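task queued by scheduler; priority normal; single chain, no ligands, no partner chains; default sampling; output format set to structure tokens
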Amino acid sequence: MMDWTDSHCRVFHRMMSRETLLYTEMVTAPALVRGGVTHLLDFDPSEHPVALQLGGSDPEELAEATRMAVDRGYDEVNLNVGCPSDRVQSGTFGAVLLKDPDLVARCTAAMIRAAGPVEVTVKCRIGVDDQDAEAVLPDFLDRVSDAGVRRFTIHARKAWLQGLSPKENRDIPPLDYPLVHRMKAEWPDLHLSINGGITSLTQAEEHLAAGMDGVMIGRAAYQQPADILLTADSRIFGAADPMRDPGEVALAMIPHIERHLSNGGKLSQVTRHMLGLFAGRPGARHWRRVLSENAHRPDADARLIEDAMAELA
């Protein structure tokens, strides 16, 4: 979800759900520690609960980045051991780390020492390339949980580090949900969430009913946010839903947009995340067109939201 789940996206999603845990884009530890790009840690207080997702493979750098995250007030720090992109592989982090679970254990142990009361978690794949996932994944969970990690999110696909693009890695390797379910049965004391190919709350409920502790939904929550998030609190958490319909959400975003513009920001930096708000509903195409064609204009302001809503009728 790099370049997708920035702070504006998370503020928008939080409007629809108070209970779900939101994740940042993956931020690399070297960028924070050596590059000084600490603005990547910025978030709005309304985003809580929010987790920082880190990439890296140096225990000391990851520990320092974790301390920075804790100082900023993040609710969780997550180590990404699942991203298959070439850019990530060249830095020796992401899914390639599944080949070195002992290094992941050292990294997470250092992060846990630096995190204090803030939980350190891991997101991973079931394996990479020609690895035997039935053997690799249990070994990985064993070694990394021995280092102190109690929560894992498992993308139920392998990552192919050669021959497939990051997009193809989200679709082509077959899903193996039963393997992830078996891991939960074998490690009842670990908190295991499942990820990959889940596009509806109904599917999420099925995985929870099968024993999983949590479900991570990525692109579906971005592309059709109202379908995933508007009733997530009541259906998944047994809590009240904060808003009732997409139109209410659109109007609720106006104060955030106005603050962003007053600070010198651009309207399109916010509205690009809102294009799918009415997905599957009458007028959705007109909503997207108005925002897409006009949000980049120099004089565009929050009134464009109301103009776009007028096209829904």
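post-processing summary
- The mean pLDDT is 93.
- The chain has two domains: 7-225, 246-310.
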